[in-house]
């Protein structure tokens, strides 16, 4: 068993037009990420959170998380890290797993998030591997967990 202080998690976030990449493979430069009205791709701000409990995250709206995440999530938030992913590119963020963390959540702040919550995902700590990064793909306006990652959309 891995002790919490020994676990450091890396998150791969890819902006692709198909979910066929791995962190080691090339990423398509023609990605239709976060398109505007003229179908031009735009970058996406992504935040990764660690929580003791996910209830406040599940209840938070897109605007809550975009504008005031630190206050809205304060009681459960263990750590957070942010990056910007450009169309056709990849980002890797890494941070130590906090001892009390039970959930990891990923949020992609698209220009026009959908009402189905495909812009955010939650993974239970017990599903994380110490040997493999947690990988998500950004496809158009959706955040997809890669194969083998049991990521849930928060119920609202």
Describe this structure in words.
InterPro entries: T6SS_SciN, Type_VI_SciN-like_sf. Pfam families: T6SS-SciN. This is Type VI secretion system protein VasD. This protein has 156 residues and is mostly beta strands. It has one domain (4-145): Sandwich (Immunoglobulin-like). 10% of the residues lie in helices and 35% in strands. It has 2 helices and 8 strands; from the N terminus they run E-E-H-H-E-E-E-E-E-E. The strands form 2 sheets. Strands 4-1-7-8 form a 4-stranded mixed β-sheet, with no helix packed on it. It has a 4-stranded antiparallel β-sheet with strand order 3-2-5-6, covered by helices on one side. The longest helix is centred in the middle third of the chain and has 11 residues, at 62-72. It is globular and about 45 Å long. The model is unreliable at 1-10 and 14-30 (pLDDT under 50).
Structural class: mainly beta
Unreliable spans are 1-10, 14-30
Shape: globular
Q: Remind me, CATH topology?
A: Immunoglobulin-like
Q: What is the percent of helical residues?
A: 10-25%
Q: Kindly report the name of the CATH homologous superfamily.
A: Type VI secretion system, lipoprotein SciN
Largest pleated sheet: 4 strands, mixed
**From the alpha-carbon coordinates, what is the Rg to the nearest angstrom?**
15 Å
- How many beta-strand segments? 8
N- and C-termini, Cα separation: 34 Å
Strand order of the largest sheet: 4-1-7-8
Averaged pLDDT: 77
N-to-C SSE string, H for helix and E for strand: EEHHEEEEEE
Helix count equals 2
Relative strand content: 25-35%
Number of spatially distinct domains: 1
CATH architecture: Sandwich
InterPro entries: T6SS_SciN, Type_VI_SciN-like_sf
Organism: Paraburkholderia terricola
Protein name: Type VI secretion system protein VasD
